[in-house]
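User: Teach me something about this protein's shape.
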Amino acid sequence: MIFFDTSVLIAASVADHIHHAASLSVYRHAAPSNACCGVHNLAEVYAVLTSIPGPQRISSEQASSAVENVREHLLTVSLDEKEHHAVIKQAAKLGVVGGTIYDLLIAHAAMKAKAKIIYTWNIRHFQRFGPEITRLIRAP
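Assistant: First, the predicted structure itself:
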């Protein structure tokens, strides 16, 4: 199973993104049988696409369509309340602060899905989460 971070999903969705071609090349082979993302990623995709500065910003309707495209191409993985709580406790132990906790949630969703690869453009963020995660991360 391949896991897609939001950074790759955004790059695959935005034609003039610097990482568009590389991201799209891995995303176009995705199907629910071989690829996934976290449920949280869907909200992040929507949030980023509707708030990108400049001409890349899209309408809420277009962002909703982009999220539907992701849902069609990827299995979505969710964490339950206990799993969220465990991630928060781990974040505190690791010294993770601010929005980086969302990357830790994504990493745990990938582990839950038994992902063999986590595609991300935020490699440095994920490297903070230990060897179990670090061995899975790749840039497209």
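Now, about its shape. The chain is about 55% helix and 10% strand. The chain has a mean pLDDT of 93. If you'd like, I can walk through any region in more detail.
User: That's plenty for now, thanks!
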